[in-house]
Structures are given as structure tokens and as C-alpha cells.
Amino acid sequence: MKRSKVVSLALGLIVFAGVAVIQTQAQTFEKKTAVTFNRPVAVPGSTLPAGTYTFTILDSFGSRNIVQIWNEDKSNLITTILAIPNYRLKPTGETVIEFSERPANAPQAVKAWFYPGHGYGIEFVYPKKEAIQIAEAANEVVPAEAVEPTPSTLRTVPLIAITPQETEVGIAEAFPPPAKTAEPVTVAKELPRTASLTPLIALLGFVSLLMGFGLRRLGSKPV
């Protein structure tokens, strides 16, 4: 009876630790981030009133990312948008949000979102009409959707870039990946706590050793 209780307890601890590892990996992959705006801001296709929102990555494939913006407690999905990598910022230990100027009387547009400890950010892709307005007002190249996507075409919709002169150029030409260099890559001194699996791996090892020791002790006693 005692042996059965020990085995059940040990297996329960291992399962709990394994679930914690899976949850930690998922949170790191989706880059869940709470962002507070003290004034309305524009995101592709909509405007967010002042408040706190949760940004997550739904999917990452090739040179594209699908970003989801939720309310603060992640109980309501507000919008799903496309994004591309932005390599223009060195890693930092905190979340960074970059903005682009908009025409007068229009809210600033969220340009890019940088997750702590990562060497690249997520630059939002705007509908073509909005991208033209932002490119002209901010005097910068803006990634855009060539046609309006649907939920089923988010992964395949053609992407372009709009210049301040309203010229369309190829997305790869306007936003090339960084050139390879022999210099060492700069990394953040401290990664987010959710990115570290060491304590959980150590817990799994400790529980396994404890279970083995307990079973050995029970096995040496008469039943």
C-alpha cells in the first residue's frame, strides 16, 4: 500500500513538472506581453482605445508572423494581424513598442513590437490604404498587404512595401534581413523568466531520483 502511494505521488509530481514545462515553452513561443496605452493608438485595420492589451504570437512561419491582440485578461480577441521581422533594434531587457506618425488628428500607429531579450522585433503589416497614409506622414517605408486578406489567406496574401512617394516595392527589397557578420551577436543580459527551463528540468531530475530511492527502500522491505 505504501509503495503504491509513493509511486502515485512521484508520478504526480513528474506530470505536474512536465505540464509546467509545456506551459512555459508555450508562453515563450507566443511572446505573451501586456501593453498599456495612455491614449488611442492605431493598429492594422482598427484603433485601440486607451487601456491595457495582451499581445501574442499565434503563428510564426518563414518571414511572417500572425499576431493576436486581446483585452487585458485575454478573454476577448480584438484583432488578428500580419507582421514581418524587424531587425533594427538591439535586444533589451524590457518590452519596446515603436510608433509611426499619422496624419493630423489621427492616432499614432503601432509600428513594431519588441519582446524582451530577442534580437529582432515584429513589424506590423498595414492594409494598403492605411500604409499609404502612414508612409507619407512618417516619411518612411511601410509594409502593406497587396490585397485585403481573409482568415484563410493570412499566410499567403501577397505583401508589398509602400514608400513615402506612394511607390510599391518588393517586401524583400524594402526589408532585407541583416547582413551576416563575423562580430558576436549582442544578447540581453537577462532573459524573461518564462524563457528559462533550468529550474523545471532540475525539478524533474530531483523527483526522478527521489522516486528511484523510495522504490528501492520499499523494495528492500518485506511485503
Explained architecture:
The chain has 223 residues and is α+β, with helices and mostly antiparallel strands. The protein has 2 domains: 1-29 and 192-223; 31-190, no CATH class. Helices cover 30% and strands 30% of the residues. It has helices at 2-30, 128-138, 171-174, 198-219; strands at 33-37, 41-43, 46-48, 51-61, 64-71, 77-86, 96-100, 109-114, 121-124, 126-127, 142-145, 159-162, 168-170. The chain has a 7-stranded antiparallel sheet with strand order 1-4-5-6-9-8-7. A hairpin with an 8-residue loop joins strand 7 (96-100) and strand 8. The protein is globular. The termini are close together.
- What's the end-to-end separation, in Å? 9 Å
**What is the element string, with H for helices and E for strands?**
HEEEEEEEEEEHEEEHH
Shape: globular
**Which stretches are low in confidence, meaning pLDDT under 50 for 5 or more residues running?**
5-27, 181-200
Could you estimate the helical fraction of the residues in percent?
25-40%
Tell me, rounded to a whole number, the average pLDDT. Answer: 77
How can the largest sheet be summarized?
A: 7 strands, antiparallel
The helix/strand class is alpha+beta
Number of domains: 2
Gyration radius over CA: 24 Å
The number of helical runs is 4
The strand line-up of the biggest sheet is: 1-4-5-6-9-8-7
Strand content: 25-35%
Q: What is the β-strand count?
A: 13
